[in-house]
Specification:
Blueprint (H helix, E strand, L loop, with lengths): L1 E6 L11 H4 L4 H11 L4 E6 L3 H11 L5 E5 L8 H8 L5 E3 L22
Parallel strand pairs: 1-2, 1-3, 3-4
Helix pairs in contact: 3-4
């Protein structure tokens, strides 16, 4: 099984950025824990602060992987381009967030990228 993890803007700062919200661990630390917990799964990881690069990565893995875990960061709330990229691929995409978006600012409650299929 092949699972791609795609992280959007500012997630390269995990462990440094607002640790009271996002925690003190880097994504590399989370990633190593995940791989150890599921050794039978082949994980790939991609992070970018650039919307177009996230779209390119969705296109690159969106027809050959078994699943995609996407944390689009702030793009979650307004990127119709990422939404359309998700709609155009066949690999299932699960949207995740590190913080509870419903306990934060109201603008974070809306997701345009979380498709219902």
């Amino acid at each position: 099984m092949k699972i791609a993890i795609i992280n959007g803007p500012n997630l390269n700062l995990l462990g440094k950025r607002e640790p009271e919200i996002y925690g003190k661990l880097s994504f590399d630390q989370y990633f190593e824990t995940l791989k150890a917990a599921f050794p039978q799964v082949e994980f790939s990881y991609f992070q970018s602060n650039v919307e177009g690069e996230l779209i390119n990565q969705l296109h690159a893995v969106g027809f050959s992987y078994d699943g995609i875990i996407l944390n689009g960061g702030a793009y979650t709330h307004y990127s119709y381009a990422i939404r359309d990229a998700i709609a155009g691929i066949t690999t299932p995409v699960v949207e995740v967030h590190i913080s509870n978006v419903y306990a934060r600012e109201e603008w974070r409650h809306e997701s345009v990228t979380g498709l219902r299929r």
